[in-house]
């Protein structure tokens, strides 16, 4: 619509300079001081080791629907967690109260719990020599000085752009805007103290097109650490409308084996299943289909997955993990071979291995591409199913069995032919990994699992047994 981009820029204008005072460093100093005082109190009570996590968070979220404000919420939270070790006995306690009496009580409670627990040979801080010393920031602190009125305007503009895009969009599940900031300090009795500050912002919209049993719902959202990296509200609304309208009049396809192209926004779930299966907790409990799989080939020869914790504005960039261990760039999969597991110090000890600096999770996994954008992947597939939505929780990490409800588009001659829903796709994760034929360059930037669309050569699709072989529209 003419002038919509200018309107979006005006709506995204920042507040006056006098509103931009940033006291985050002073607040981090306060959290650091609290953590040191708590560690001293732990030592005074006889703890052989101790660790403290302190955090402050604040945020604003608004929701609108059909041009009306539904909710406006401002949040401000803080938390302090204390963990003590008496030898290999562990106790933890937490509080949100910064008064001295409450802090003393929290330490005392953690110590009391530790004294009544059994020894655990894997318990304790991560090794001192693994502590991070290069404590850089990675451009993740971008507070958005936005008030409730401006947030409502942006959400309204997003929904209006979607509702005005096509007359078949007759209803809405609403639009939302969220913005939050977080400050955290982790310290332990090795002398390590790490500070982090991060921000996150999002705008999203969900729309409904059609009527009665023919209604379809879809949406779109943008997520980033800095406000200027968000898509404009109008662009989000229009994309939500395009996606919703494109799903009208879906068809069934016949049950059978077909190539499956997972669009980037759902392809990352496949990488998530891999992470779950190679994470220490699942491995030492023998609750993973990938137990004892390090060093084995799981993917095609060209496949690489690398952890990149130092990406500027990376969604999970950090110089240290949740235990203070220095992060580092490491391959997870190289040449199709699983190179390592995903371990913190506890799970590493349980497995007789070393920490991989993944206490608290992975940091920006990047899946290497061997193909082009989505359009080129569709042309390469030729005929099959593009999956744009997955439903249900039918994934068994113990066995690797995979079965999920899905919706998307039938592809014929390398082009979208018609929408499809009411189907189930099924397979075995180990087989699916080895059957990957292509990974695209169309990375979805809204996740720390950075992958483009993924083409799996064949999967079972349970469709309609009364429908003949899938055919072009």
Automatic annotation (TrEMBL):
GO biological process: proteolysis
An MF annotation (GO) of this entry: metallopeptidase activity
Metalloprotease TldD/E central domain span: 142-248
UniProt domain Metalloprotease TldD/E C-terminal: residue ranges: 255-463
InterPro entries named among the record's database cross-references: Metalloprtase-TldD/E_C, Metalloprtase-TldD/E_cen_dom, Metalloprtase-TldD/E_N, PmbA, TldD/PmbA_N, TldD/PmbA_sf
Protein name: Metalloprotease PmbA
Keyword Secreted: no
Pfam families: PmbA_TldD_1st, PmbA_TldD_2nd, PmbA_TldD_3rd
Organism: Agrilutibacter solisilvae
Keywords carried by this UniProt record: Hydrolase, Metalloprotease, Protease
Domain Metalloprotease TldD/E N-terminal: 50-114
Gene assigned in the entry: pmbA
Family: Belongs to the peptidase U62 family.
Gene Ontology, cellular component aspect: cytosol
Organism phylogeny: Bacteria, Pseudomonadati, Pseudomonadota, Gammaproteobacteria, Lysobacterales
């Amino acid at each position: 619509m003419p002038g919509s981009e200018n309107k979006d820029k005006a709506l995204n204008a920042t507040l006056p300079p006098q509103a931009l005072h940033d006291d985050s460093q002073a607040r981090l100093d306060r959290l650091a001081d609290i953590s040191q005082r708590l560690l001293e109190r732990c030592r005074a009570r006889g703890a052989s080791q101790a660790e403290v996590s302190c955090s402050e968070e604040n945020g604003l979220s608004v929701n609108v629907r059909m041009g009306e404000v539904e909710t406006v919420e401002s949040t401000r939270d803080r938390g302090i967690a204390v963990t003590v070790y008496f030898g290999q006995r562990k106790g933890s306690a937490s509080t949100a109260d910064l008064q001295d009496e409450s802090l003393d009580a929290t330490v005392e409670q953690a110590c009391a719990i530790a004294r009544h627990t059994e020894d655990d040979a894997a318990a304790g801080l991560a090794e001192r020599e693994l502590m991070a010393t290069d404590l850089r920031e990675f451009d993740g602190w971008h507070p958005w000085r936005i008030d409730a009125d401006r947030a409502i305007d942006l959400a309204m503009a997003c929904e209006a752009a979607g509702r005005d895009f096509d007359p078949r969009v007759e209803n809405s599940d609403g639009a939302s805007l969220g913005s939050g900031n977080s400050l955290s300090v982790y310290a332990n009795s090795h002398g390590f103290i790490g500070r982090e500050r991060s921000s996150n912002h999002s705008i999203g919209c969900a729309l409904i097109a059609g009527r009665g049993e023919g209604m379809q719902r879809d949406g779109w959202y943008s997520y980033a650490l800095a406000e200027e990296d968000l898509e404009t509200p109008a662009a989000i609304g229009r994309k939500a409308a395009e996606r919703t309208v494109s799903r009208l009049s879906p068809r069934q396809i016949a049950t059978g084996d077909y190539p499956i192209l997972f669009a980037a926004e759902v392809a990352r779930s496949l990488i998530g299943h891999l992470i779950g299966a190679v994470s220490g907790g699942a491995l030492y409990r023998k609750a993973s289909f990938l137990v004892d799989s390090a060093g084995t080939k799981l993917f095609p020869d060209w496949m690489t997955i690398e952890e990149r914790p130092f990406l500027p504005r990376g969604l999970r960039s950090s110089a240290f993990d949740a235990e203070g261990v220095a992060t580092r760039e490491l391959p997870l999969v190289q040449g199709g071979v699983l190179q390592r597991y995903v371990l913190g110090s506890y799970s590493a000890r349980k497995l007789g291995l070393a920490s991989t600096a993944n206490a608290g999770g992975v940091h920006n996994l990047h899946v290497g591409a061997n193909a082009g954008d989505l359009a080129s992947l569709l042309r390469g597939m030729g005929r099959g199913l593009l999956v744009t939505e997955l439903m249900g929780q039918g994934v068994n990490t113990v066995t690797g069995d995979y079965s999920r409800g899905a919706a998307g588009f039938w592809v014929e001659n390398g082009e979208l032919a018609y929408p499809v829903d009411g189907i189930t796709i099924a397979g075995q994760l180990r087989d699916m990994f080895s059957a990957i034929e292509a990974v695209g360059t169309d990375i979805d930037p809204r996740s720390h699992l950075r992958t483009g669309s993924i083409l799996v050569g064949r999967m079972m699709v349970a469709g309609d047994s009364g429908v003949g072989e899938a055919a072009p529209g």
